[in-house]
Specification:
The complex is a heterodimer of chains A (243) and B (758).
Chain A lengths: L3 E10 L2 E11 L4 E5 L6 H9 L6 E6 L2 E2 L5 H6 L2 E3 L12 H15 L6 H11 L15 H13 L5 E5 L7 H16 L3 E5 L3 H7 L2 E6 L2 E6 L1 H6 L1 H9 L5
Parallel strand pairs in A: 3-8, 3-9, 6-7, 7-8
Antiparallel strand pairs in A: 1-2, 1-4, 4-5, 9-10
Helix pairs in contact in A: 3-4, 3-5, 4-5
Chain B lengths: L1 H31 L6 H18 L4 H23 L9 H23 L17 E4 L2 E4 H23 L1 H11 L1 H6 L4 H23 L8 H9 L2 H6 L5 H21 L7 H21 L22 H21 L2 H26 L7 H16 L13 H19 L7 H20 L5 E5 L2 E5 L6 E3 L4 E2 L2 E2 L3 H24 L1 H11 L1 H6 L4 H27 L1 E3 L7 H14 L3 H28 L4 H23 L7 H9 L6 H19 L5 H22 L5 H4 L17 H10 L15
Helix pairs in contact in B: 1-5, 1-8, 1-11, 2-3, 2-4, 2-8, 2-9, 3-8, 4-22, 4-24, 5-6, 6-8, 8-9, 11-12, 12-17, 13-18, 14-18, 14-21, 14-22, 14-23, 15-16, 15-17, 15-21, 16-21, 18-19, 22-23, 22-24, 23-24, 26-27
The chains are: A alpha/beta (243), B mainly alpha (758).
The complex binds adenosine-5'-triphosphate (ATP) and magnesium ion.
Adenosine-5'-triphosphate binds next to strand 2 and helix 1 of chain A.
Chain lengths: 243, 758
């Protein structure tokens, strides 16, 4: 049974359907890709999973439990963590404190309790952010800020990590290194749902990919299947997108 | 039945005026995102202008109306948008509330200065067509009221056409959704903003002219409050929906009139009359309960401009020591009256400390600090004095203080509950409504509450004789009825609470509060129960407000029920605290001192100058003295838009470089001590001393930087970093673009375009 299951999700903003009967699943210990042109509904799906947005119909199931009605903080306590495409960092805090406060929040509800301070240093190392630790988080480049968001999410020791375009703003070498990190994380048993425009990263790390376009799933399969799928190519070329 | 219909007619008449006022508020909010607290002040000054034109200068009614509603009021709106509100983009919700508060106080101050500076004067606005009226079902309905209903209909229809059928309206509605997108699509958000401010202010003016005759003799702040009564209608419409606002206004008007009917025009019994006055505030709470929860707010995309640095605990302790020493030295120099001013200021600083926690750290808003003072005062009085005791004999006990803080925390928690789900602005409005309710139903009550619980008789004395006298503490064998001793006690308390707050800020709890302020959405996805944290912070800060308020009351000794509690004092305190630097303990200190100095000392100086130079009396007393008294604080508040982090930040930025010249700094500090000694011995005047010290605070850092330029190269070159690296080393920001525009002499792009950081 998959760890996360979204079934028949529907979301509409005014008249426009942002999600149309979307089904997405993610398994523990694997990286699932979620791709699609701009405005396809990827971020909207993340918002539904984390509870920041309520779908008009459909259910979200985590670990066999229906969490559709739970508020965001309760979902997080069940093991969902995410990053934000439009960065949501704590702009008055330093890089280190951004990560540390996440651990401190987590240590209020998480058992066994982990020392937030020690965990912070571990995560800073893991993400190679040590040299930026004492900088104001508003001062660092976007690519690094995205890593801070990943680190912050990891502090809750999630079962599933939702990453919204984590590589944008990182250069090629950094992206490469970041991909390895993701593989390492899922080797530890975390499920990762990855939204990313960098196709080579998706092809490299994902074991399964869902493709959204205009709110509907237009394809799903292994990276190789997706790459060969004419519908997907059409969606991307038709939308005149993709660097 | 006939009565019911008659009161329905009256309710619709009243509701119509509310509708005009409330929709004006909605129009400005929905295009600019600014909740224009000053709406009521625009209404008031328009009513005065209309009076001046019509009854003062005897213009014809139509001409006076056109000049007031179509020329004067919109001009005020346009002026506000151009000069003040436009600077509010990218600022926090707090700043966006404080500036309109400052504008409100400035306009009312100006009106007082123009029309009422020589004390009371009867300005009695007349109704349109005087006392002519129709008889409707046995009730007199004035032509004035009929005109009000007609105008409300016209307003509703006009706004509908404007917002939903015209291009300008579409632009206006799009402006607040996404300014940038609108511009990319060829919209002109600036013009839309101007339009909405002009219309909003015009509607305010109309409401003011219609409401003014209700009062009899016009009183500025009372009329402003009358307009505030319409605000719940706007809140019911989520500050966006014109139709719901309209319906809400009708509900408001009808409720009030039905209440009159049920209580048989209940003007005779004070309790009921006050309940009538509290109806809008009560309805506001009701509206808050039913408002749907908005989406969790994320971080503001363009970084807000407010930045606060955090002192280390060591620094905080050192500064606390300096403050106590400085205060001890200062009070030794000063005469009795000046010590009282200083002590008043210190008491206000203690109250402002509660806002440092709530607003500075958590970004939430409390517009009823004085109300908490009132609550604390009533509780402490019951415990320490009691109905038969003598306040002058008693000592304020620690038990009473703790009980008062506890009650304040609980009460604070209860009023915050309905607003916690909503954005910060709504919590602010809830506190304001709470202030009104307590003022009307508790503080203005002159009968004691009697009752019994489990057979125990109890009597709670409110402001029974119109005032309460509070005991001062008598602790550690020191009688704090001595003003100097009490000043020092408050100073020590200020330092201790300040240290505790810095401790909180540096703790895990403090970081969570900051995180919650910066991005509630991110916090929720990390598992933080935001409502519980908010509730906790609000309760803690309410308790601190109670403590500070109690000290303030003890400083005043006898407190009348008529001033400070009607809401405006709380608005002023909130505003000055933010201006002082709401993120800093020192900001609270500055705020308190400021308030007492500005409102007492400054005018006195000018009155003295006026009597010394009788030929310049008008200039000093009316021109500068009264003007600073009435308008000064508000003008300072308006300046905040330029530097939203507050004055404390500015002063500290000035001092930061001094660390590099320890010798010079030490020399400066010791010369102050020497001067103090001379002044204490009477060798130089106290005022001279004060002026020299204040002046040196601003001058010495500059002088030292000038003397040792080599140590300050990096400070002087700040902002001159290598342009090639901007965007790589850190994100490209608006000030960078401005700098490039400046240096390349490009015509500045529209300043409202938000920066592309991602
Ligand atoms: N708050 C909102 N109000 C109205 N429409 C919205 C809102 N949020 C998203 N949309 C619309 O829903 C659709 C899906 O948006 P979403 O942000 O989920 O796309 P996305 O796949 O994440 O795109 P991108 O690759 O650009 O991040 C878009 O058409 C968008 O304009
Ligand atoms: Mg997206």
């Amino acid at each position: 049974m998959p760890l996360l299951e979204c079934q028949h999700l529907n979301v509409a903003f005014g008249g426009a359907k942002a999600l149309n009967n979307v089904d997405v699943t993610a398994d523990s210990g694997a990286i699932t890709g979620l791709i699609g042109p701009n405005g396809a509904g990827k971020t909207t799906l993340f918002n539904c999973v984390t509870g920041l947005l309520h779908p008009s119909s459909g259910v979200v199931v985590l670990d066999g439990r229906d969490i559709t009605r739970l508020p965001p903080f309760k979902r997080s306590r069940l093991g969902i963590a995410r990053t934000f495409q439009r960065l949501e960092l704590f702009s008055s805090l330093t890089v280190r404190d951004n990560i540390r406060v996440a651990g401190e929040i987590a240590s209020r509800w998480q058992r066994p309790r982990v020392d937030p301070r020690r965990e912070t240093e571990r995560v800073l190392d893991l993400l190679a952010l040590g040299h930026l630790a004492d900088r104001d988080v508003t001062e660092i480049p976007t690519g690094m800020a995205r890593r801070v968001e990943v680190g912050r999410a990891l502090m809750t020791r999630p079962k599933i990590l939702l990453l919204d375009e984590p590589a944008s703003g990182q250069d090629e070498a950094e992206t490469e290194e970041f991909g390895d990190l993701l593989l390492q994380l899922c080797a530890d048993g975390i499920a990762i749902l990855l939204v990313e425009h960098d196709v080579s990263l998706v092809m490299k790390v994902c074991s399964y990919v869902h493709v959204l376009d205009f709110g509907s799933t237009i394809a799903r399969g292994t990276p190789n299947e997706i790459q060969a799928n004419p519908v997907v190519l059409d969606a991307y070329l038709g939308a005149d997108q993709e660097p | 039945m006939q009565d019911f219909l008659a009161y329905t007619v009256l309710g619709i008449c009243l509701g119509s005026v509310y509708a005009i006022a409330a929709t004006g508020l909605v129009v400005t909010y929905s295009t600019s995102g600014v909740f224009n607290v000053a709406h009521g002040a625009v209404a008031t000054i328009s009513a005065l202008v209309y009076w001046q034109l019509r009854q003062g200068w005897h213009l014809s009614t139509p001409l006076a109306i056109v000049l007031t509603i179509c020329v004067f009021a919109p001009a005020v709106g346009i002026f506000l948008e151009l000069v003040v509100m436009r600077g509010l983009r990218d600022t926090s919700e707090v700043t966006r509330l404080v500036i309109p508060i400052a504008v409100l106080l400035a306009i009312n101050g100006l009106a007082t200065w123009v029309w009422f500076r020589d004390g009371s004067r009867a300005i009695v606005p007349k109704k349109f067509f005087g006392e002519q009226h129709l008889q409707v079902l046995g009730q007199a309905v004035y032509y004035h009221q009929v005109i009000g209903v007609g105008l409300a209909m016209a307003t509703a229809g006009g706004l509908y056409v404007l917002l939903y059928r015209s291009r300008l309206g579409v632009t206006m509605r799009a402006t607040v959704d996404d300014r940038r997108l609108l511009m990319l699509n060829g919209g002109r958000p600036d013009r839309a903003s101007l339009g909405s401010w002009a219309i909003g202010a015009g509607l305010a003016g109309l409401a003011g002219v219609l409401l003014a005759p209700q009062q009899g003799a016009l009183q500025i702040f009372a009329l402003t409050l009358l307009v505030f009564d319409a605000y719940p209608a706007a809140v019911g419409g989520r500050l966006r929906s014109v139709p719901i606002t309209f319906v809400g206004a009708m509900v408001l008007g009808l409720t009030r009139q039905y209440f009159d009917w049920v209580s048989h025009a209940g003007q005779s019994w004070l309790a009921l009359r006050n309940l009538r006055n509290a109806i809008p505030a009560i309805l506001l709470f009701a509206a808050l309960l039913f408002l749907p929860q908005g989406r969790l707010r994320g971080a503001v995309v363009a970084r807000t401009r407010e930045r606060f640095t955090v002192p280390t605990m060591k620094q905080a302790v050192a500064w606390g020591g300096v403050l106590i020493a400085a205060m001890a030295m200062l009070q030794a120099l000063m005469k009795g009256a000046a010590v009282i001013s200083l002590a008043n200021g210190m008491a206000l600083s203690l109250m402002a400390l509660s806002l440092v926690l709530l607003t500075g750290y958590a970004g939430e808003i409390n517009l009823a600090v004085y109300t908490f003072a009132g609550v604390a005062l009533i509780v402490a009085w019951q415990l320490d004095v009691g109905p038969t005791g003598l306040a002058t004999r008693a000592s304020l006990s620690v038990t009473a203080i703790l009980a008062a803080m506890l009650v304040c925390a609980v009460v604070g928690g209860l009023i915050a509950l309905p607003a916690l789900r909503l954005r910060g602005l709504y919590l602010g409005l809830a506190t304001f409504a709470f202030g009104t309710i307590v003022y009307q139903l508790v503080i203005l009550q002159t009968k004691p509450l009697r009752g019994s619980i489990f057979g125990h008789q109890f009597t709670i004395n409110l402001f029974t004789t119109g005032s309460l006298t509070v005991p001062r503490p008598h602790w550690f064998g020191i009688d704090f009825r001595d003003q100097r001793a009490f000043l020092m006690l408050m100073t020590v308390m200020f330092v201790l609470i300040g240290l505790a707050l810095v401790g909180i800020r540096r703790s895990a709890y403090g970081r969570m509060i900051i995180a919650m302020k910066d991005s509630p959405a991110a916090c929720a996805t990390l598992g933080l129960n935001i409502m519980r944290l908010k509730l906790g912070v609000f309760m803690l800060s309410s308790a601190l407000a109670g403590l500070g308020g109690l000290m303030w009351a003890a400083q005043q000794r006898t407190l009348a029920n008529n001033n400070n509690f009607d809401g405006f004092a709380s608005l002023l305190l909130f505003m000055i605290a933010v201006v002082g630097g709401i993120g800093y303990i020192s900001g609270a200190l500055l705020a308190g001192i400021f308030l007492s100095v500005l409102s007492v000392v400054m005018p006195n100086i000018f009155i003295k100058l006026g009597s010394d130079y009788p030929s310049l009396h008008w200039f000093f007393v009316t021109g500068i003295g009264n003007f600073t008294k009435f308008v000064g604080p508000a003008l300072i508040g308006i300046r905040l838009g330029k530097n939203p982090s507050g004055i404390a930040q500015q002063v500290m930025d000035g001092f930061r470089p001094l660390k590099r010249v320890p010798l010079g700094t030490a020399a400066w500090a010791s010369s102050i001590v020497v001067l103090w000694f001379l002044s204490w011995r009477g060798a130089i005047g106290h005022w001279t001393f004060a002026l020299v010290v204040i002046g040196s605070v601003f001058i010495v850092p500059r002088v030292l930087m000038g003397m040792f330029p080599e140590r300050f190269e990096d400070v002087a070159n700040a902002g001159q970093e290598d342009p090639d690296l901007i965007g790589l080393a850190r994100p490209f920001q608006r000030h960078d673009r401005d700098r490039f525009d400046r240096e390349l002499a490009l015509p500045g792009h529209d300043r409202s375009r938000s920066d592309a950081t991602s």
